[in-house]
Amino acid sequence: MTNAEIIQQGLALLGEDLGQPLSLDEGGVCALEFNEGLACTIELGDADGSLFIHGQLLTAPAEGREALFRRALTLNLYGLQTGGGAVAYDPDADALLLCHRFPAELLGPEQVSNLIGDFVLRLDALRARLRDQHPDAEAMVPHGFAPGQLA
Q: So what's the pLDDT on residue 134?
């Protein structure tokens, strides 16, 4: 079974749980959006077929960026708070993201489905944690996908 097939089967399992068919598009991407602007993107890596998952935590504020970035980077320490993922800054979106890469060859479809579910829960928890620590947090929470944000 190829890495793409493993990821497709994992998405199909997750889709069954969510009551909605899920699959990678022709570009190897699947975008999921949940309540309150919580969204993530699942991608098949071109070079090695890895499973990439990323989601926006918060839009970077005009003021207080240094304190927010310090808190966000602290979450990366040893990967304990991020589940082995990384908090990163996307300059194009001016936003903090949670990103994770999994070698698909080490995964089965059930693991892919579970990893995506776990990622979404962690994304939501970290987003709430960062939002609760910043006074302008409501304005920073993403509200769905911006046009052209996803490839």
A: 64
Q: What does pTM read for this prediction?
A: 0.83
- Token look-up 């497709």 returns 8
Chain-centroid distance, C-alpha 48: 19
Residue type, 55: G
Residue ranges with strand state E in the chain:
29-33, 39-44, 51-59, 86-90, 95-102
- Residues 98, 96: Cα–Cα separation, whole Å: 7
Contact 32, 137 (CB under 8 A): no
Torsion from C-alpha of 97, 102, 103, 105, nearest 10 degrees: -140
3-class secondary structure, 29: strand
Token representation of residue 15: 């889709």
- The DSSP symbol for 121 reads H
